[in-house]
Amino acid sequence: VVVLGSGAQDYEAAMKQAQLDYPYFVRCITKFDVPLSHRIIASCDILMMPSRFEPCGLNQLFAMRYGTIPVAHSTGGLRDTIDDYNTFADPGSRDRGTGWTFSPASLEAFVDALTAAIKVLQEQPGEWRALQRRAMQQDLSWGKAARQYEIVYAGVMRQQQEKRADLEAKGSQALARQEAQLKLEAAEAERAAAAAKKAEAEAKVLVLVLEAGKDRLMPGGATQADFNQAD
Length: 231
Fold this sequence. Notes:
Elements: E1 2-4, H1 9-21, E2 27-29, H2 34-43, E3 46-49, H3 59-66, E4 69-73, H4 76-81, E5 100-102, H5 107-123, H6 125-136, H7 142-213, H8 224-230
Parallel strand pairs: 1-2, 3-4, 4-5
Helix pairs in contact: 2-3
């Protein structure tokens, strides 16, 4: 086991003590050294990355490019970039996996995943080589990421265009309904005006009739002349 990095003093002390207790099996280097980290990762069989959280993660990407198989906590970018080893998948398929992830972030889950990886490494060398090839052949470039972003943006733009077209269609339908309603109201107003005009004409006729007959039709059959003579 090779440990490189700096951190909490109790962790550093524990790693240094492990190196003293097992000098042929543990090497601890408590410093930040990027070039050395790449050499260590490239020379190992397995990268252990039990991060509690990892927004993206670079070490697992470096490891897979070097053919070093990651065993990592299933979180953030680690979950997104490592395909779990699946012994039931087609041996020639990428679904066969590129490493191991574990959850929850517990010692037991970590040990189980690491034990499974070591078992394949020790007992199935051909399978391990295929696992390394799958990990190394992955396209983890920015070109692939950019193409995926293009797909997302194109989908968003398509949704916006569909929404805009739908709103325009609904707006056209609403405008057509409004125009039809206005025409209906105008027709009703015209009919009401015609009815009012007709009623006015009938009222004028009635007034003329009454004016013409008031000299001839008096109470009891008398005429206006009879009333004048009586006066």
